[in-house]
Amino acid sequence: MDDILRRAVNSTALAAAAASVALIAANRLSWATGLLVSTAWSMINFMLLMNIFGIATLRKPRKALIAVLLIKFPALYLIGYLILASKLFPLSSILTGLAALIILGVMTIWPKRA
Question: What integer best gives the mean pLDDT of the chain?
Answer without folding.
Answer: 88
